[in-house]
C-alpha cells in the first residue's frame, strides 16, 4: 500500500436544539438500515446517562481484516494489505491525517471506530487459535467516519461534524464542507418517524425460540476440569472459559439494541450495522482508556444479583465484600492490570484508586477498582492497547498461559466476544470497552457468548450456571426485540 499524506484536516460543525428528540430517534432518522453505521452511548455507573452520544452512518471507508490480510478503503479507493500486526496498519492510516480539532466539542471528533475481536491475540502475543473459525466474521472492522453527529444530553443539542481538507483551495473546501453540513441538517430535519417506533416499556416477553450452544454441558464441564488440573499444576491461577449460545430468529438488529439498552443500561452501549451482520452491546467494563496521556483500566470481578428491596441490596453488597474467594480473584486481576499499565506508564506513576467499590447495574452489582498510569513519552495509544489486550477478566492470569489454554480448551474462535469495542482518535486518545454482554446479529440468527473464571476450587455446575446467568439479559433482549417482528 502506497504511503499517503499526511493531509491536514479541520473540523466544521453546526448544532441544532433537539430538546424533543433522543439519540435513538436521531439515529433512526439519519442511519435507517444503512450499513457502516454506529451509535455509541453511555450510562455512567449503570445509573446516570453519560453526557454525549456519538452517531455515524453510511460510512464506506475503513479497515476490515482477518488472518493477516485485510482491505483499507479511503475515499472509495480500496487497497489490499498484508501485515503482522493490524494496529500498525491502523496507526499508519490515522497518521496520514493531521486533524485540527475543535476545542469546544467533545474529545472524539473522528478517527477509527469499531471492534477488534479476541482472536487478535494471535498478532500481539503469538497465541495459537482453535482450528474452527466459529462464526467466521472478520477479526476486526474499524470505520473511518468523516461525518459525525454528537448528541449532547445536557444542552439538548445535536452537533453535526464534517472533516474539511485544509491542503489546496481552502475556500472551495470550506464551501464544500458547509454544503455537506447543510445536507446533513436537511436529512435530519426532513425525516419523520412513525408511531410504530414507540414501545411498551413494561413488556417482558418470554423467549420461545430454542437456543443451541457451540458446546454442550459435558464438553464444557470436561474443559473446566482440565483447566483446574492446569491450576493444580501451577500453570495458571485462573482461566476464563466460555460458551456461545445461538438463537434462530429474524429481527431488526436495532430493535435488539433498543431492547438491550432498556434492559441493561451500561457505561458502554454500542450498535454497529455492517454489511452482513451487526454487533450490539451493553458492556459494563472498560478495556483501556487513554485521555491526554492518562491511562485507565478498571477491573470488574466479583458479582451478586440485585436485591428486590434496598435492604436486600445492601445485604448482598455486604455479602459480596465479605466473600474471600471473590476478593482474592478481584485483587489478582487488579495486580494483572497494574502490570499491564506498568508496561507503558512512567516509572512510579501507576496507582490504584477507589479500590473495592460497588457499582450497580440493572440486574447485578460488581466489585470495581481503578488502575491509573501516566503514559511514557515513547509510547502511543497502540502500545497501550497491545499492553492491555485482552482483559484479564476474560482471559485469566497469567494472561499468556491462560490464552494458550483457552485456545486448547474452547472448540472454536471467539470472534468479537471478549475483544474490544471503541475508538482511536487522530490526537492519540483511545476509549475501548470489553465486548461482553454483546450480541452478534446475522440475518436469521443471533449469538451471545459468556464465560466463567475457573479457579482452584471451581465447581463445574456453578460455572455452567454462571455462563447461563451472564446470557440472561441478552436472551431477554432477543425476546423483546422479536415482539416487534410479530406485529401484523
What this model shows, in words?
- The protein has 488 residues and is α+β, with helices and mostly antiparallel strands.
- The protein has a single domain, classed as 4-Layer Sandwich (Anthranilate synthase), CATH 3.60.120.
- The protein contains eleven helices and 27 strands.
- Strands 1, 2, 5, 9, 12, 13, 14, 15, 16, 17, 23, 26 and 27 form a 13-stranded mixed beta sheet that branches.
- Strand 16 and strand 17 form a beta hairpin.
- Helix 5 crosses helix 11 (460-485) and helix 6 (253-263) packs across helix 11.
- The longest helix has 26 residues, at 460-485.
Calculate the mean pLDDT score and round it. Answer: 91
State the share of residues found in helices, binned by percent: 25-40%
Strand content: 25-35%
CATH class: Alpha Beta
The general outline is globular
Largest sheet: 13 strands, mixed
The named CATH superfamily: Anthranilate synthase
Number of helices: 11
Q: Please give the radius of gyration in angstroms.
A: 22 Å
What is the count of structural domains? 1
Structural class: alpha+beta
